[in-house]
């Protein structure tokens, strides 16, 4: 038996365990919550005859501005009150500030006694809360023309509904994957005759049956280990979770086949690990993850129009899509609320994409997903299946873009590499999600690792650092984000703005980076959905792209043995600390807690740093005895089964007589 380098394997395993454990613990300890507000049922209407208009006039149902300071004074109020609901007949212009002033004890309006709300697309109801007391009047300021339908006041406070989301996350399995693989490796090292003895029980028909036993045993162990996690997080541990873990056990077995044994080809194992895990996450993500960050909103817009309008979107489809986006909400009442929210986005999107034009999408980077949508429609797919298919195509398309960029970087073509990375980074930035920042940072780290050791000198490192800084800024300077028009901005609007005034565009980008970027709450003011769920599967893209890159490179690539192991480990730790620090900074600066915002740190943001670090260390030397295609199929089959099972579960949940 070949002697094992325990120092090298121990260092590698320690880094893997530390990263996986930190990601899992952070994610477990800071679970995101969603808070919704609803108006109390005892609200009473404020009659229109008591409305006093100033610098505005009523024409039909519309309130038209006639002066510089328009407002409506609601007089003749009686009794105690502490909440107010303003219901508009049509959505007010997005981005304006709706301000409600309430008087002090002497009946005077003071500048500091107010509540305000920012108007957003598809929203026609705005609620305000203020101190409980008797008010003789209230004053509402809306700096635009609008249609005011109804005003309600109540002495009860606004109702807050909080919900932990989601009920189950695939990254909760990270630590279990690593622990099981490490345990299997140790067991086989100290008991080398275990496999021959098990194989002898099955005779000549052993390989397939033995593999089934391995998968079943691994899945059972995983299910038992996951039970305390579900118990601590209050997750219902049902039979469908057990099936999920059994399938995950099959994935564990596929990874376990790639364990370190001794010889010459770490590149192939690295490729298969990355490609397999990346494809698993990409395949499962459209069905089990909260990822409006991959353009799901605009896919729904296109689907809504492509299927002929609102009449063709059934309740089942609407609630199913709501469940796919928010799988943690087992409560049907809450799902109905999200269904209404989704339908509101349908209505807004139909106005933008009436002609089904490529340029009607809010950002050109959504084109791969749009093509996937139209292909699914051509093949006659149902609404929900087409939606998932479009997201899947989009993720695969950007995986290939990232892969091409990494391969170009490996050959020294840095400018082409940056050109290849910009679309993906800006695509993620267009979702206003911190996850996009993490994705870009992970891709840049991978590119830098492919270039390490080839060139020396301060000028080279300075140029490399400058490119990385420019790429991070590129994430923040997507035109749709810079113009602060949110999801209503189309590609035509962006191109027209840049071409008409390039100097103004550059000035806006600089102001955005130096002023708006550091302002707390910036992300939450740019789009509706980013206040409900922030989750970008960037790690899956990076994994699959790195896997494809390594799999297509020559097999006789020499190992980088220069430098000490301690130095390599130090570089890996610094890299992970930098990416993790960026994630923490992003969370603290750009994700405010409360007011319906996501309040949890996404543990998966640290995962992209794990795999470039593994590539830097180049893994233990591993000798592969099976053809690469067999490993690829072994990785793909559990992913397909996993996705089919989750879709079947969704269909089963919404197949009752109510639908």
TrEMBL record:
Keywords recorded for this protein, A-Z: Membrane, Transmembrane, Transmembrane helix
Pfam families found in the cross-reference section: DUF2142
Domain of life: Bacteria
InterPro entries named in the record: DUF2142_membrane
Transmembrane segment boundaries: 173-195, 207-227, 239-258, 270-289, 365-385, 392-410, 430-450, 462-483, 526-549, 569-588, 631-651
Protein name: DUF2142 domain-containing protein
Organism, scientific name: Acutalibacter muris
